Amino acid sequence: MAATKDLAFVLGTHDYRETSLMADFYTRGHGKVRGIIKGIRDTRARFGGTLEPFSLNEILFYKRKKGGDLHLVTHVECLDAYPAVRGDLERLAQACYCTELLNELSGTEDPSPASVDLFRDVLGFLGTGASPRRAARIFEVKLLGELGLMPETRACVSCGRPAPDPAYFSVPAGGIHCKGCGASQGVPISKGALQFIEHVRRSGVADLARVKVSAEVGAELEKTLRRFIDYQLPAKLKTLTFMEKMET
User: Fold this and answer.
1) What is the chain's alpha carbon radius of gyration, rounded to the nearest angstrom?
2) 197-211 pLDDT, tens per residue?
3) Residues 6+ apart with CB under 8 A from 45
4) What tens digit of pLDDT does each residue of 92-116 get?
5) Residue 19 half-sphere exposure toward CB, CA atoms < 13 A
6) What are phi and psi of 213, to 5 degrees?
7) Contacts of 41 by beta carbon, 8 Å cutoff, 6+ apart
8) Which alpha helices (DSSP H) does 165-248 contain, by range?
9) Are 101 and 91 in contact (CB under 8 A)?
10) Is residue 184 packed enough to be buried (19+ CB in 10 Å), middle (13-18) or exposed (0-12)?
11) Is 54 helix (H, G, I), strand (E, B) or coil?
12) How many of the other CB atoms lie within 10 Å of CB of 136?
């Protein structure tokens, strides 16, 4: 088996047999990778806190000779644990949501270096004191774009009319309709929400630090994007249930 070194975010871990762990990593060069770390539950000092969700690590793993997606991980070195994010419950919750979303939307061993860079940028953004909800919306829009899942928000999905006003968002249709093509098939989406989405698509994460949205537009964006993302997934994300309990 050939050794492979890669930059990797931890997506999650769980116990495997008596002394080992199974871990899901999102790597820069190989996409989502699942690996076994043998003996770690007996010698956790080897890895310390490096296997916390969304920690950034350098890993060394050996790919199985006979194929399959379960590999042997022999080295994990933490590069950034994002302590500023972990020290605040709301930021931690949004970071865990982004981690779970990346895990669920990504295919196994389907590399997307731009998605790794995006996740790193958004975690850094979360640690600056910026709005945690805004960071999550930025991540959603950009990740959908990187993975080829972004709904059409620039023109009517039926007739192609650019920037329809008013516009109606249809989850099954995968984008917006103009009034003539599908007012009855979608829900109204404001011009402000569409402008925010377009601004996020065109800008780098660092350039979005000072972008402001009203509470109304922010709530509309969250509801609209969540409905669309839920449509792409087989089940509700666990972190959403946790965040809903936080708000009650």
Assistant:
1) 20
2) 999 999 999 899 888
3) none
4) 999 999 999 999 999 999 999 999 9
5) 6
6) -135, 150
7) 15, 18, 19, 20, 21
8) 179-182, 191-202, 215-232, 238-247
9) no
10) exposed
11) coil
12) 23
SS3 letters across 61-90: EECCCCCCCEEEEEEEEEEECCHHHHCCHH
Alpha helices of 106-237 — where are they, by DSSP H? 113-126, 132-146, 179-182, 191-202, 215-232
Task: Kindly report the number of other CB atoms within 10 A of residue 208's CB atom.
Answer: 20
User: Do residues 41 and 18 touch, judged by C-beta distance below 8 A?
Assistant: yes
Report how far apart, in Å, the C-alpha atoms of 208 and of each of 62, 138, 213, 217 are: 39, 8, 11, 16
Which tokens belong to 129? 């004191």
Between CA 58 and CA 23 the distance in angstroms is 14
Query: Which residues partner with 60 through β-bridges?
Result: 5, 75
Q: Give helix 89-105 / helix 113-126 axis angle, nearest 10°.
A: 170
Q: What is the end-to-end Cα distance of the chain in Å, rounded?
A: 51
**CA 73/CA 5 separation, integer angstroms:** 10
Q: Is the pTM of this model over 0.85?
A: yes
